[in-house]
Amino acid sequence: MATDERNFRSSYYEKVGFRSVEERKSLEILLKDKPLDRAKLTQFCLRFTVPGIYRSLLWKVLLGVLPVHVESHEFVMLQRKEQYQDLYQSLNVMGIATKNTPNSQLFILMWLLEIGQLKLDYASQIEEPLNQHLMAITDAILSLFPESIDAYWISKGFYQCVNKFQKGLNNLIQCTMAILEKEDGTLYSYLEEIRAFQVIPLETWFYRCFAGVLYDQALGKIWDKLAGGSCKILVYVAIVLLTTLRRSIFGSQTREDVLKHLCNDFLK
After folding, report:
1. DSSP secondary-structure letter at 50?
2. Which residues pair with 214 in a beta bridge?
3. What are phi and psi of 214, to 5 degrees?
4. Residue 211: beta bridge partners?
5. Measuring CA to CA, how many Å separate 115 from each of 81, 109, 217?
6. Which pTM value belongs to this model?
7. Alpha-carbon span 97 to 103, nearest angstrom
């Protein structure tokens, strides 16, 4: 009887739009595991939206900021805090960063220092396209997690995600075009006809994981999948953006008009 009652409630919640109630309970059960089961947490991220209250913890575990042993979390975060302070102090002593340095720049400089790639000409490094993309990711993460130390380590995790799929970026772009042609051949043909694919900033979207493109609060649901290891979510987001703007695109006479709609309609 208890089982039937629980199943009834689950079904009812889904019908009225409260599916997340059961998902949250499922996640809370997974978070009681000792040690945490990273594979199960990954599957949760890939299947569901992570409740905001648990997003920081879950991302830190999946991105390697925290270990699966919960009893070590406090100690590890103390070490992360010391690492953060050491990196900042090093940049400060070298005259590279001050208290007025924007966090997005600071995090990139700290990351480059940590991986041994900071150059004397660090100012030009900051202007490199990839680092500009990573800074956009940092800005979005800071809006989700205002605590600088958490934001730095989570940002670093996403930098590493971008580095992993960077070499396969062309494959992601080709995959996007192939799926769009299959799902909406008419839209694909029109974009080809006006040569719009030459101006649609797929590369920028993917490098930034849509940071600075979509509103920050919308990014959490997308980045749950990235934290779970699925970069292909970026492909489907791009397709949804294009098909959602289908009417506006067909009303465009030139590829420049298409780009204008992509920038001005419901995107940032």
Report:
1. P
2. 211
3. -95, 160
4. 214
5. 17, 10, 30
6. 0.86
7. 10
What does the pLDDT profile of the chain (268 residues) look like in tens digits? 333 333 444 444 444 444 555 788 999 999 999 999 999 999 999 999 899 999 999 999 999 999 999 999 999 999 999 999 999 999 999 999 998 999 999 999 999 999 999 999 999 999 999 999 999 999 999 999 999 999 999 999 999 999 888 888 999 999 999 999 999 999 999 999 999 999 999 999 999 999 988 888 889 999 999 999 999 999 999 999 999 989 989 988 888 888 888 877 555 4
Query: What's the full length of the chain, in residues?
Result: 268
> Measured between alpha carbons, how far is 145 from 150 in angstroms, rounded to an integer?
7
Nearest CA to 84 out of 65, 68, 70 is that of: 65
Phi, psi of 194 (to 5 degrees): -95, 10
What CA–CA distance (Å, rounded) separates 152 from 184? 40
Residue 120 has which token pair? 């004397």
Closest to 218 measured CA to CA, from 227, 209, 228: 209
CB 264 within 8 A of CB 208: no
Unique residue bearing structure tokens 């790639």: 117
Q: In which residue are the tokens 């109630």 written?
A: 21
**Site of tokens 């609060």:** 217
